[in-house]
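Morning F.,

Quick status update on the modeling queue. The single chain you submitted on Monday has been processed. Sequence for confirmation:
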Amino acid sequence: MDSTSPVIVERRDHVAIVWLDRPDKRNAFAPAFWTSFPTVIEELGDDPEIRAVVVAAKGAAFTVGIDLKAFGPALVTGNIDLTAPAPASPVAQRAQTRRLVKTMQRTFSSLAECPKPVIAAIHGYCIGAGVDLITACDIRYAAVDAIFSIRETRLAMVADVGTLQRLPKIIDPGSVAELAYTGRDFDAGEAASLGLITRILADADAVVAAAIETAEAIAANSPLAVQGTKAVLRAGDGRTVDEALDYVALWNAAFLHSNDLGEAMASFVEKRDPEFKGL
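Structure tokens below.
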């Protein structure tokens, strides 16, 4: 990863920490972010040595969302490539805008689709596209100073990269509507009471430490079982209970009889910690 990248990756054994790294801009998402971030997440998803991912941020804020100053021309033209020629017609511009939105959607869908569990470690502002990001994560921890906002309506936009689709599956739809329509700020305590946040920690250092601790606990388990659990949870969306039960029955028929299962049984009998290999 070169020094100009808006994200950097730190590896700790089987855990990867993906740092948002534009602290001077409060980690606002400039055009380069939307292509570099999903590439990083997809590479970690394919890396057999990585078993859990933490997304955290450098500086005073998790993110203030889209960098409107840097990204404004892209929003106007509908093209993330600011050097590209202007579209030839209004229809071409609308098609170009759709491609831009789909590119941006992929950025955060990479988190939901990552086979490894992803934990968001949030502090300070988490605004606009920051909420899109965290709703695509599996687990969300926040520092007590965290401030959230579905800010798009206050900027004359409809949130279009995941919040309106994922947040109603996390918290009460009526609460989603109120927060999205008003665009108001809400703090970590309210986020926790709504169910958006699982744990509140004292500060940025504490929230990152807690996220890493949880990621390490996840990484100590069988990666086959953990990744299978994420896959089964995702597959339950839109299925009836009976359909979801059929899915998990087929999953275990395919993956239950692993070397990791044998290691789990052996370590229990031998009264030692298991050493899972994901095989």
